[in-house]
Design goal:
The complex is a heterodimer of chains A (224) and B (380). In chain A, the strands form two sheets. A four-stranded parallel beta sheet of chain A has the order 4-1-5-6. Chain A has a two-stranded antiparallel ribbon with strand order 2-3. Chain A contains eleven helices and six strands. Chain A is an alpha/beta fold and 224 residues long. The mean pLDDT of chain B is 92. In chain B, helix 3 runs parallel beside helix 9 and helix 9 packs parallel to helix 10. Chain B is an alpha/beta fold. The two termini of chain B are 22 Å apart. The chains are: A alpha/beta (224), B alpha/beta (380). At the A-B interface, helix 10 and helix 11 of A face helix 10 and helix 11 of B.
Chain lengths: 224, 380
C-alpha cells in the first residue's frame, strides 16, 4: 500500500450498515474501506450511525463511531443545505436539518473538498435510491468530480484488486455481492418490501454479477 | 352486490379464493404444460423438479392451488395409488431457514397424519423392518428410531423433537441421543418424513404415493445472505438427491423477466438450478389469453346462465375495450379491474328505475382512466 493513492470518499450510513459483516478474503469490507479510501464524512454521520447501531453486528462496525468522528469534516464555505443542495432538485423539499441530514451533509462535504482543491475527486457511496433519484444524479452530472457508488460498486472495486492478487475467486466476490443485496431484508421489515422492490434487487444483483464477470475476464489475464 | 350483474360476489379474487373447488380459466397451453407434468408424475417414478417462473399476478400460486386439489383427489394412476400435494411458502427467516422450511412442511402434512402412516407401516412390515428401511433412507439412527416409533401416544414429544426442541427427558423417552441441531439434521428428518408419505398410505398391502411438493415465493431467497443461503440450498439439495423416486418438486419464482434465467440462477444458486429438469414459463398474456380467461370467468360465476350474452354485464364493444386496457397485464390485474368497474357501476344500476341492459363502451370509457390510475398507484 506504500505507493497507493487513496480515493477520497464520503459514505452514507445505509451503506455502512449494508456492508456490515461482509467479508472479502477473510477481511471485513468496512475494514478495507478504512484502508483503501480517504474517508470524509459530514457532521451528522456519527450520530446517525449510532442511532442505527442495532442494525450492525460485526466487531469492525464497533470501531466505526470513533472512526467517523475522526474523519468528520465541517464545511466552512458550503454551510447551507437549501442553497447548496436545493438547485439539484426539480422541486426542492423543506430543508429542516433532520430529513436526509446525512446525505446533504456528505454532499456538501464532497463538493467543498472538490471546489477548494483539497481533493481531486470524490466518491459518494450510498445505497439510498431515493436520494440518488432526488438530487445525487443531477449533482453527479453537474460536478463530474463527484461520482456516486453503491455498496455493490465497492465490492466489485475491492474484488477486482483481490482477484488480481489471487486472494479470492469469482464465487467469493459473487457471495459478497449477494450479501449486500440481501441486506435490504435485514435492514427493513420484509413486509414493507414490495414485489417491485424485490424484483429490482434481483435485477441489480444480475447486473452486478455481469460486471463482475467482466472483471474476472480481465484479472484472469494476470493469473494465467 | 354483483347479483345485479348476474355474477357471484367473489367472481374476481386477487389471490386464490376459498371457493369449494379452485377453477381454471383460459390459458389452455399453460394448463396443458402442468397437465403433462402431472401425467409424467403419474407414469414415471423418477423424481421431477420443475421451476415455474413468471410475472407477479400471472397465476403461479393459483396453479399450485388448482393442481394440488386435483392431485389430492386423484387415485390409482399408473404407478401410484395416491398423490400427496403439499403447498408451502419458501422460508422467510434466513437465520433459521431450514428450521422454518421444516416447520412449514411438517405443519402442512400434520403430525397426526405422520403418526398414522408410521402406524400403517408398523402393522404391515413391523417396527424393526420399518426402522431398518428408515435408517437406509436417512442414514440417521435417531431419526429412524423416532419416525418408526411415531404414534398417538408419543405424538407431542415426537413433534417437539422433529421441530428441533426436546428436553433430555423427552429424548430419553424417545430413546434418542441428541436434538436436531443443524440444517443437515433437519434435512435427514424430512427425507424420513417423505419416506413415510411415499410408502405408508396403507396398512394392508404395499402402497406407493407420489409426493408433489410445491414451494411458493422462491424469489425470497434473494434476502438470504450467503452464510444462511448456502446451508439452506444444500439441505434442500440433500432432500432432492436422497429422494430420487416418487417425488415432484415444483418451485414458484416470481420475476418480471421470467426469461432471464441467469438472474434467477443468481438467486436460487447452482445447487438448486442443476436439479431442475423442466421449466414452465408464465409468459405475458396476449389479448386472446385475457379474452378467453375473462369469458371463462364470467361463465363460471354466472348466477343465471339462461339467455345471457357471454360478455354480460359488458356490451361486446365494452368488453373489447376492457381487454385492450388490460393488455400486457396479468389475470390478477384484470380481476382487480373488473371488480373495481362493477363496484363503481353498482350504485348507478341500483339507483336506476329501470335496470340498464349492459355496461356500454361509452360508460366504460368514462370510468376507465380513473380506475386504471388507481390500480397503477396501488401497483395493481
Amino acid at each position: 500500500m506504500q505507493n497507493f493513492t487513496r480515493s477520497a470518499c464520503v459514505i452514507d450510513t445505509c451503506s455502512i450498515i449494508n456492508l456490515d459483516d461482509i467479508q472479502l478474503a477473510r477481511q471485513d469490507v468496512l475494514a478495507y474501506i478504512r484502508l483503501f479510501f480517504d474517508v470524509r464524512v459530514g457532521v451528522p454521520l456519527r450520530d446517525e450511525f449510532n442511532r442505527h447501531r442495532h442494525q450492525v453486528s460485526s466487531r469492525e462496525a464497533s470501531y466505526w463511531p470513533r472512526f467517523l468522528s475522526s474523519r468528520r469534516y465541517v464545511p466552512s464555505v458550503l454551510t447551507d443545505d437549501e442553497s447548496v443542495i436545493g438547485p439539484f432538485y426539480t422541486s426542492p423539499p423543506v430543508f429542516d436539518g433532520v430529513r436526509n441530514a446525512g446525505e446533504y451533509a456528505n454532499a456538501r462535504v464532497g463538493m467543498e473538498l472538490l471546489l477548494t482543491r483539497q481533493i481531486g475527486h470524490t466518491l459518494f457511496i450510498t445505497d439510498d435510491q431515493n436520494a440518488q433519484n432526488a438530487f445525487l444524479d443531477r449533482m453527479q452530472g453537474a460536478f463530474p468530480g463527484i461520482r456516486v457508488w453503491t455498496s455493490a460498486d465497492v465490492i466489485i472495486y475491492l474484488g477486482a484488486i483481490l482477484l488480481k492478487e489471487s486472494k479470492l475467486g469469482f464465487d467469493d466476490v459473487k457471495s459478497a455481492l449477494r450479501d449486500v443485496y440481501a441486506a435490504a431484508g435485514r435492514v427493513r421489515p420484509r413486509a414493507e418490501i414490495t414485489q417491485s422492490e424485490k424484483e429490482s434487487i434481483i435485477r441489480k444483483l444480475a447486473v452486478s454479477v455481469d460486471r463482475l464477470k467482466l472483471v474476472v475476464k480481465v484479472t484472469e489475464h494476470w493469473r494465467n | 352486490m354483483f347479483e345485479i350483474f348476474n355474477l357471484r360476489d367473489d367472481s374476481f379474487p386477487v389471490t386464490p379464493a376459498g371457493q369449494e373447488e379452485t377453477p381454471w380459466f383460459g390459458f389452455k397451453a399453460l394448463k396443458r404444460e402442468f397437465e403433462s407434468v402431472v401425467q409424467r408424475s403419474a407414469a414415471e417414478s423418477l423424481r421431477l423438479c420443475i421451476l415455474n417462473r413468471g410475472i407477479y399476478g400471472a397465476g403461479k400460486t393459483h396453479a399450485a392451488s388448482y393442481f394440488s386439489e386435483r392431485l389430492a383427489s386423484k387415485r390409482s394412476t399408473g404407478v401410484y395409488q395416491n398423490f400427496i400435494p403439499i403447498l408451502i411458502e419458501a422460508p422467510k427467516q434466513p437465520q433459521k431457514a431450514f428450521l422454518d422450511f421444516s416447520n412449514r412442511l411438517l405443519n402442512a402434512i400434520t403430525f397426526r397424519r405422520l403418526a398414522r402412516l408410521s402406524e400403517n407401516l408398523r402393522t404391515r412390515i413391523g417396527e424393526d423392518a420399518l426402522f431398518e428401511r428408515l435408517l437406509t433412507a436417512t442414514g440417521s439412527e435417531d431419526i429412524a428410531s423416532s419416525l418408526s416409533g411415531l404414534s398417538d401416544s408419543n405424538l407431542l414429544v415426537s413433534k417437539t423433537y422433529l421441530l428441533g426442541g426436546g428436553t433430555v427427558k423427552d429424548l430419553r423417552e424417545l430413546r434418542l441421543a441428541k436434538k436436531l441441531l443443524n440444517d443437515h439434521d433437519f434435512a435427514l428428518s424430512i427425507i424420513g418424513v417423505l419416506f413415510l408419505l411415499i410408502y405408508g398410505e396403507s396398512d394392508r398391502h404395499e402402497s406407493l404415493s407420489r409426493v408433489v411438493l410445491w414451494i411458493d415465493e422462491m424469489e425470497d431467497l434473494v434476502f438470504f445472505p450467503t452464510r444462511y443461503y448456502l446451508p439452506f440450498t444444500q439441505a434442500l439439495r440433500e432432500i432432492i438427491d436422497n429422494t430420487p423416486l416418487h417425488l415432484t418438486v415444483m418451485l414458484n419464482f416470481t420475476f418480471a423477466e421470467p426469461e432471464n434465467l441467469p438472474a434467477i440462477e443468481n438467486v436460487l444458486g447452482q445447487a438448486i438450478m442443476e436439479r431442475v429438469n423442466q421449466h414452465i414459463i408464465f409468459k405475458e398474456p396476449s389479448a386472446d389469453d385475457l379474452k378467453t380467461y375473462l369469458l371463462d370467468c364470467f361463465s363460471h360465476n354466472r348466477l343465471d346462465k339462461r339467455r345471457v350474452s357471454p360478455t354480460y354485464p359488458f356490451s361486446s364493444d365494452a368488453f373489447e375495450l376492457l381487454i385492450d386496457a388490460a393488455a400486457l397485464k396479468t389475470p390478477r390485474f384484470l380481476n382487480k379491474l373488473c371488480d373495481q368497474i362493477l363496484r363503481e357501476t353498482y350504485p348507478e344500476w341500483a339507483r336506476a328505475s329501470t335496470k340498464p341492459s349492459e355496461i356500454s363502451r361509452a360508460a366504460l370509457e368514462k370510468k376507465l382512466p380513473s380506475i386504471l390510475g388507481l390500480l397503477e398507484e396501488s401497483r395493481g
